[in-house]
Design brief:
- There is one protein chain.
- The chain is an alpha/beta fold.
- It has one domain: Nucleotidyltransferase, domain 5 (2-Layer Sandwich), CATH 3.30.420.
- The chain has six helices and seven strands, in the order βββαβαβαββααα.
- The strands form two sheets. A five-stranded mixed β-sheet has the order 3-2-1-4-5. It has a two-stranded antiparallel ribbon with strand order 6-7.
- Helix 4 crosses helix 5.
- The longest helix is centred in the C-terminal third of the chain and has 21 residues, at 141-161.
- The chain is globular.
Length: 198
């Protein structure tokens, strides 16, 4: 059994860990060329070539604030379709939940003097937090995000298997437990009521 994290992008982060926490694969996948649809189709094929039966998979959700929303949707959809066609079940973690899992809020500084982290600064903060939490280091922020997703996959599997661990016994940091709980027990958003036209 492996725990797999996938951070979809034109440079997709992919991490597979075993039950002992040993990283078996940690790489950035890009597909062939830089012209779509060939790049996205070959990227999806490349990802699927690394997935094995029995893998517990967590994939990062679609970011809402991306400048290239259509392309991001295409990549995310292509990967999910391929996983579905092959019969793989996967969990999804929102982009903010991935950061929250390593206690990165996107802000630094004291109350009243906080500064929002953006772009490269936010990515560096996540990379530093992953090193502090798990001692995992990689030059690609996409691979680092995939590592977090693999950790989330492991924790979800542990909770769903009923295994006694730091999560089930309450020793896991609250921010990590909250991420796992939100994925396993999503709160449905209330539907907006339609107002009848007069």
């Amino acid at each position: 059994m492996r725990f797999v994290g996938i951070d979809p992008s034109t440079k997709t982060g992919f991490v597979a860990k075993d039950r002992d926490g040993i990283v078996l694969k940690a790489k950035e996948l890009t597909g062939l060329g830089d012209v779509d649809p060939k790049r996205i189709v070959t990227l999806t094929d490349e990802i699927m070539a690394h997935i094995l039966p029995g893998d517990v998979i967590c994939i990062e959700g679609v970011p809402f604030d991306t400048q290239r929303a259509a392309q991001a949707g295409w990549i995310h959809g292509s990967i999910r379709n391929a996983l579905f066609r092959k019969g793989f079940i996967y969990y999804e973690a929102a982009p903010n939940a991935v950061k929250k899992f390593v206690n990165v809020t996107g802000w630094v500084g004291e109350v009243g003097h906080k500064k929002r982290l953006k772009g490269k600064d936010k990515k560096l903060a996540v990379m530093k937090a992953v090193e502090e939490h798990f001692t995992f280091v990689h030059q690609s922020d996409n691979v680092v995000d995939a590592y977090i997703l693999a950790e989330i996959a492991k924790d979800i599997w542990t909770v769903e298997s009923g295994i006694e661990c730091s999560i089930t016994s309450g020793y896991q940091p609250s921010y990590q437990a909250e991420v796992i709980d939100a994925i396993l027990n999503p709160v449905a958003k209330p539907k907006k009521k339609k107002v009848a036209k007069a």
